[in-house]
Amino acid sequence: MRLFVGIPLAAPARAELARLAERLRSVASLRWAAPGSWHITLQFLGDASDEQYHCLVARLSELRSRPVPIRLGGLGVFDRAGIFYAEVELTPQLDALERSVVHATASCGFEPDSRPYHPHITLARGKGPGRARALRSLLAPIATRPKFTPFTAVEVLLYESHLSSAGSTYEVRHSVPILADT
Questions:
Q1: Domain extent for 138
Q2: CATH code, domain with 136
Q3: What is the pTM of this model?
Q4: Closest by alpha carbon to 177, among 154, 161, 160, 159?
Q5: If you count Cβ atoms within 10 Å of the first and of the last residue's Cβ in the chain, which end, N or C, has fewer?
Q6: What tens-digit pLDDT sequence spans the chain (182 residues)?
Q7: Backbone angles phi, psi at 87, to 5 degrees
Q8: Buried b (16+ CB within 10 A) or exposed e, 140-164
């Protein structure tokens, strides 16, 4: 199974992003992610065995975190990956939660990403030649930085990613409430 750990979006933030995405769909021909699949990845794990899955459930269930405020920022493009995204502000609390997840998953045999953590929400993907131009065209109609309703993360989810020709779908395999340190 192909796994990752993430934070689901609160309903108001998801609705605001959905309205923005609907407005931008006519600007470029891209594969848009379904609003129900939007999340903030804490760590992509990749392929996992059944043994690793059970280890992850146990380790993630031990997570403790202070409340994690989530604030969405502007919009951006990862040219090389062909992704249009909404930025997520890297607060000290979110950074600490990401480090806690990486520490917990390490005991199950998963390696941390070598790149710095850059929280974001993938809204659309482009493929083929000209994708960077198509993705960047999405930024032009947005005259001012959008405002999104902040929220507090209340859970961490272990997702399984199912790949298909129509795009990825995500199944929640385990939910861990964010509990205050004791």
A1: 2-177
A2: 3.90.1140.10
A3: 0.90
A4: 154
A5: C
A6: 999 999 999 999 999 999 999 888 876 678 889 999 999 999 999 999 999 999 999 999 999 888 899 999 889 888 888 899 999 999 999 999 999 999 999 999 999 999 999 999 999 888 777 777 778 787 777 766 788 999 999 999 999 999 877 677 899 999 999 865 54
A7: -70, 150
A8: eeeeeeeebeebebeebbbbbbeee
